[in-house]
Amino acid sequence: MNDQPVSEERKFRRTKVVYRQWGAGGAVYGLGLIGAWVYFIGNATTFWLGVLGFFKGIVWPSFLVYEALKYLSM
User: Fold this and answer.
1) Positive or negative CA dihedral for 29, 32, 34, 37?
2) What does the alpha-carbon distance between residue 16 and residue 25 come to, in Å, rounded to a whole number?
3) Which of 50, 46, 26 is CA-nearest to residue 38?
4) For the residues 53-73, what does the mean pLDDT come to?
5) Radius of gyration of the chain (CA)
6) What is the spatial distance between Cα 12 and Cα 14, in angstroms, rounded to a whole number?
7) Cα–Cα distance between 56 and 41 in angstroms, integer?
């Protein structure tokens, strides 16, 4: 094995653990994503409109915020 002594600095070095929590926002976005996919892909008449609906489902919050701000600015 390794016969070299372990330095004091290396003995006490710890790994930093970072916990990231989405909370309820991740669940709401996930349900909205599935709902948008059902709506956009369900209303698609061709394969490529279904593909477009898939991508629209991913970015639907930006459309929602844009329309809400446009409505509120009137």
Assistant:
1) negative
2) 25
3) 50
4) 88
5) 24
6) 6
7) 9
29's tokens: 């976005």
pLDDT tens per residue across span 32-60: 889 999 999 999 999 999 999 999 999 98
Q: What angle do CA 59, 71, 49 make, to 5 degrees?
A: 35
Q: Minimal CA–CA distance to 36: which of 63, 24, 54? A: 54
Give the Cα separation of 40 and 9 in Å (integer).
Answer: 57
- The domain ranges of the chain are 23-72
Q: What is the pLDDT of residue 15?
A: 74
**CA–CA gap between residue 18 and residue 15 (Å, rounded):** 10
pTM > 0.90: no
Instruction: Specify the residue for token string 């309820």.
Output: 24
